[in-house]
Amino acid sequence: MEQVINKNKIDLRYLGLNIKGEIYRNLSIEKLIQEGLLNKETKMSMNGAVMVDTGIYTGRSPKDKYIVEEDSTKDNIWWGDVNQKLDEEIFDELFGLVKNFYNSDSSKTYVFDGYGGDDKDHQLPIRIIAKKSWQAHFANNMFVRPHKNELENFNPEFTIINASDISNSEYLNHKMNSETFIVFNLKKKIAIIGGTEYAGEMKKGIFSVLHYLLPMKNILSMHCSANVDLQNKNACLFFGLSGTGKTTLSTDPNRLLIGDDEHGWSENGLFNFEGGCYAKAIRLNKDDEPDIYNAIRHGALLENVVYDENTHKVDFNDASKTENTRVSYPISHIKNSLSFKGLPSTSGHPRNIIFLTCDAFGVLPPVAKLDQEQAMYHFISGYTAKVAGTERGITEPVATFSPCFGGPFLTLHPLRYAELLKSKMASYGSEVFLVNTGWVGGSPSSGASRISIKDTRTIIDSILNKSINKSNFNKDDVFGLLIPDKLDGIEDHILNPINAWKSKEEFHLESKKLSDLFKENFIKYGNEVEHLKAGGPF
Q1: Where does the chain hold its CATH 3.40.449.10 domain(s)?
Q2: DSSP state at residue 441
Q3: Which positions ≥6 away from 413 have C-beta within 8 Å?
């Protein structure tokens, strides 16, 4: 897609920004790289990629994220720890700080105009304004890049103004968490950022906005990866929290990647929200993750990696700055993607939906089919588990629940998204499967092993080619899940987890422990979800 340079052409006074310095709009990637090096914001690295350090903040600041409470949001937002309220007056005060910063600074301003969403019928025109060229570079990588003719009469419907160099010294008087602020005013269609350089705030910020706007249009917004077969048919969604294998399993040499993180599901089918990928780079190596490794080339932007000061060679194993080292790159850098083929990152309706969980209790089956109510229950629950063996002798599994597999980004009550999922499933005949990539035959402390990636891929293949439906399904008596009794390429005894345990008594104890955690977690969603409890454990 051709990029354009519009120097001093764009007028930002409608935002209260009277820019004194030069304004650069939609610079080409080559120009953005040059600007970053010229401004001493970035350094050149391997294969033409550039590197940047984001300072104190190397990850999101969820406690510093706020939504302005006003008439349009008061009764719609799912208020709580994720969506914190902020008064309009405080927003106006902070917005004044941002405007003063921009209006008093004569340095360059960088603007990216593009889209959230690759579906022409439902994409959100967005504008990102920044004082650092690398932040515009990030926006260019991550959002859908416009064609030249689309910029001529471009009208943004949401704007992020990044003022990462300033902070809020009055945060205590404002009853805010810290000097850092990420504030969304959905009525004014503006977000402002101050006190943090972490680029993920812009990416996830637009995701949160789409999570608010799209369900109002009967479009399901989702935190998931998606792929499709080589004929751009038989699409599949992969939901899963960190460590479940979402990225690994959706990257399939026999299928094309639609996107790796954020999607919408409209009456047209699936569409990627993004034009790029934002992958973790810690302990990255060419053998285990060749697609991501090979994507680190001209145009890619590395964040907070450790490198040799003389050679600029990156040490991906060094976590001394952060465990959350990242790389952003256009999705076209992934060879087995629709984007690489020059196609939009869109597809038809998914035939299959896969919920990935890594069950460290060892009691969930490697695969189970879910009915509509179960799908809604497990979607709202968003379960996985981790082993806390690094915490001074603690070896018991730790359950993690994140509603709709994307809790930090939901703006509406989880039931809204679950009802949309049910509606889409019913309309388009999508089947839902729960796939456990965790332990089989016991918990980690018992010496049991995680199911192999090979076996999981075999299971996924059986779902995609529908051979799993040739099996007989038996309902387990704890979670009510439908478990296949036979599956080509998989040992029969591991399909029903109770058969893989040496002690049936221990299995039942661990099953009850996990089922109780599910029930306890579900309470917090209130009476609105009472009717869905039948989809959970007995």
Answers
A1: 6-40+60-219
A2: S
A3: 78, 525, 528
- Residue-level pLDDT at 5: 44
* Burial (CB count within 10 angstroms: exposed 0-12, middle 13-18, buried 19+), residue 388: middle
Comparing C-alpha atoms, which of 198, 201, 165, 167 is closest to residue 52?
198
pLDDT higher than 70, residue 389: no
Q: What pLDDT, in 10s, does the model give residues 268-299?
A: 999 999 999 999 999 999 988 899 999 999 99
In angstroms, how far is CA 453 from the centroid of its own chain? 22
- CB half-sphere exposure, 524, CA atoms < 13 A: 15
Q: Which CATH class is domain 352-535?
A: alpha beta
Task: Kindly report the backbone phi and psi dihedral angles of residue 480, in degrees, each rounded to the nearest multiple of 5, phi listed first.
Answer: 70, 20
Q: How many CB atoms within 10 Å of residue 534?
A: 11
CATH superfamily of this structure's domain 6-40+60-219: Phosphoenolpyruvate Carboxykinase, domain 1 (3.40.449.10)
What confidence tens digit (pLDDT) does each residue in 289-347 have? Answer: 899 999 999 999 999 999 999 999 999 999 999 999 999 999 999 999 999 999 999 99
End-to-end CA distance of the chain: 53
Beta-carbon contacts of residue 469 (< 8 Å; ≥ 6 apart): none
Other Cβ atoms closer than 10 A to 111: 22
Q: Where in the chain is the domain with CATH 3.90.228.20?
A: 352-535
Looking at the annotation, which residues are catalytic? 60, 204, 223, 242, 246-247, 261, 326
Instruction: Give the pLDDT confidence of 222-248 residue by residue, as tens digits.
Output: 999 999 999 999 999 999 998 898 988
What is the rounded CA–CA span in Å between residue 280 and residue 204? 15
What is the token pair recorded at 321?
Answer: 């700055």
Q: Provide the 3-class DSSP secondary structure of residue 521.
A: helix
Identity of residue 37: L
Does residue 4 register a pLDDT over 50? Answer: no
User: pTM surpassing 0.85?
Assistant: yes
354 and 236 in contact (C-beta within 8 Å)? yes
Helix 414-428 to helix 372-381 angle (10° resolution) is 150
Cα–Cα dist 466/342, whole Å: 29
- Judge whether 68 and 89 are in contact, CB under 8 Å: no
388: confidence class by pLDDT, cuts 50, 70, 90 = low
User: Would you place residue 68 in the very low, low, confident or very high pLDDT band (cuts 50, 70, 90)?
Assistant: very high
